[in-house]
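Memo to structure team: turn this sequence into structure tokens by end of day. - J.P.
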Amino acid sequence: MRQTLLLLAMIAMPAGALEPEVTHFPDLASGRAPLHTVVPAYPDKALSERVEGDVQVCFNVDRKGKPYRIAVRSSTHRVFEKPSRRAVRASTYKPLPEGQKDSGIKTCRTFRFRLEPIEVSQPDS
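Reply from structure team:
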């Protein structure tokens, strides 16, 4: 019921009354420290259609700290997949020191795309 009311409230709002928000959740199991994390932009098409969703992207990190073998593991909506893969590709990780063996553990990152209602002020009459 609450989701229905929120959806109805979102439909009644003017187009500019939603603030896109993308949150990322890194997978810390790989042990590789991120140097530069890129968060994907909210796709214009998803914003105009008021679509929200989650994408989990898994990848390996080479010795120099660049992601490779980037693949979407799960997704609630395809519109978010390409920006999520691009964000992972543009991110960098701490390079491995000389002589340290690469663990080969796949890393995953989850991106959550949400639209937050914002207060629209009415002009004084």
